[in-house]
Specification:
single chain; mainly alpha; 7 helices; globular
Length: about 120
């Protein structure tokens, strides 16, 4: 479940970068999702085949990454929602970016300030 929470965060940050938006330094999937253009939010919501709305999934996923990486803490909400969120985001990315012939490498996401540090 830790990996699902972390993966959903990375998906959202990657999607933000693909839309030319610098992601915030946060683990909150709801905050990251809200920074996406409305068109991307709508398209992502279309990839949700669950009985829960994308808003419910995001709200329930808030705080899971911080809580579940430490075994002694009890996660907030239904941890499996993080896995559901990863599936939705994966469908969105593969449907909207893979077919355009663009392949992204790690170097594409390194900020100019990070490159200067190397």
């Amino acid at each position: 479940m830790v990996l699902a929470s972390f993966s959903s965060e990375l998906y959202l940050k990657g999607i933000l970068l693909m839309h030319g938006i610098q992601p915030k330094h946060t683990h909150n999937p709801k905050d990251l999702f809200s920074r996406l253009p409305d068109s991307a939010q709508t398209e992502i919501a279309k990839h949700n085949h669950a009985t829960f709305s994308i808003d419910e999934i995001l709200e329930t996923s808030v705080g899971n990454f911080q809580k579940i990486r430490y075994m002694r803490l009890t996660p907030v909400g239904f941890v499996s929602f993080s896995t559901l969120l990863v599936e939705i985001l994966h469908r969105y990315v593969t449907d909207n970016f893979e077919d355009h012939g663009q392949r992204y490498a790690w170097e594409d996401f390194i900020l100019p300030t990070d490159k200067a540090k190397d």
